[in-house]
């Protein structure tokens, strides 16, 4: 859930979209590696999770490819607008969920 905070901070840095994307990818790789290490240490990772990971690899690879193609076609202002829209939609979903759950 720290993605919006990273995006807001890096947006304030005025990074070129390619640099922004590379930094964002590296942050999530490091974050994922640290989380995986913690999950392995606590026994939360099981064989079923490995099977699910193997099944999802083709989807992840194709998503990275499609994201790369889309990123080249988007203008800088479109990316900023889309980040704002996604952040607001995520916030609205969390607020709605908090009212619906007891």
Structural write-up:
This protein has 102 residues and is mainly α. It has one domain. Helices cover 86% and strands 0% of the residues. It contains 4 helices and no strands. It is globular and about 45 Å long. The relative contact order is 0.08.
Strand content: under 5%
For the secondary structure, the number of strands is 0
Derived from helix and strand composition plus strand pairing, the structural class reads mainly alpha
| Low-confidence residue ranges | none
Give the assembly state of these chains: single chain
Rg to the nearest angstrom? 17 Å
Largest sheet: none
Averaging pLDDT over every residue, what do you get?
Answer: 82
Helix content range of the residues, please?
Answer: over 70%
How many separate domains make up the residues? Answer: 1
Q: Which H/E pattern describes the elements?
A: HHHH
Key phrases:
mainly alpha, 102 residues, 4 helices, 86% helix
Briefly characterize the structure.
The chain has 4 helices and no strands.
Secondary structure topology:
Blueprint: H1 3-12, H2 17-42, H3 47-73, H4 76-100
